[in-house]
Specification:
Shape: globular
Number of strands: 8
CATH topology: Aminopeptidase
Strand content: 35-45%
CATH architecture: 3-Layer(aba) Sandwich
Number of domains: 1
Structural class: alpha+beta
Mean pLDDT: 92
Order of helices and strands: EHHEEEHEHEEE
CATH class: Alpha Beta
């Protein structure tokens, strides 16, 4: 089940984050993520297992000035990578963000470790900043165009 984030999910989301350190996030980003969860810029979702455990989380924010939606802080619990949960949650975030008629592109930045995942969903890499997050952890800027509410993959 995918539902809206609640402040009661804070610790569970931090556990998902922690499971992805150091490969996907640095420990230094934990406080930034916690602050993000306290002051959300837009909707944030959690994917919950039938047993009630938070397995994944991620959000998006609409930038009304430039017609973009930014996917932010998406992650899946490390032991559940490759199960399709990330794809399901990401597609839901995209679907919800493009409902806003002002959105002309969906953007995100991620590391080189997950850029291929987003490319398989139709995103294009538009720039790479080596060591953009930390030594050996490069920042990949990605986007997907939207025309009349329809995604233009690639």
């Amino acid at each position: 089940m995918i539902r809206d984030y609640s402040p009661l999910d804070l610790e569970a989301c931090l556990e998902v984050f922690d499971s992805n350190v150091p490969r996907f996030f640095t420990l230094n980003e934990r406080d930034e993520f916690r602050s993000f969860l306290h002051e959300l810029p837009g909707p944030y979702l959690v994917l919950v297992t039938p047993g009630g455990r938070v397995a994944a989380c991620g959000g998006y924010a609409i930038n009304r000035d430039d017609g973009s939606a930014d996917l932010c802080w998406g992650m899946v619990r490390e032991d559940l990578h490759g199960t399709g949960l990330g794809r399901r949650l990401t597609r839901r975030r995209i679907e919800l963000s493009v409902r806003d008629p002002r959105v002309r592109e969906v953007c995100l930045h991620t590391s080189q470790h997950t850029a291929g995942f987003y490319e398989r969903l139709g995103f294009s890499t538009i720039g790479v900043l080596e060591n953009g997050y930390a030594p050996g952890l490069h920042r990949c800027d990605m986007r997907m165009s939207v025309v009349d509410g329809q995604l233009l993959e690639g």
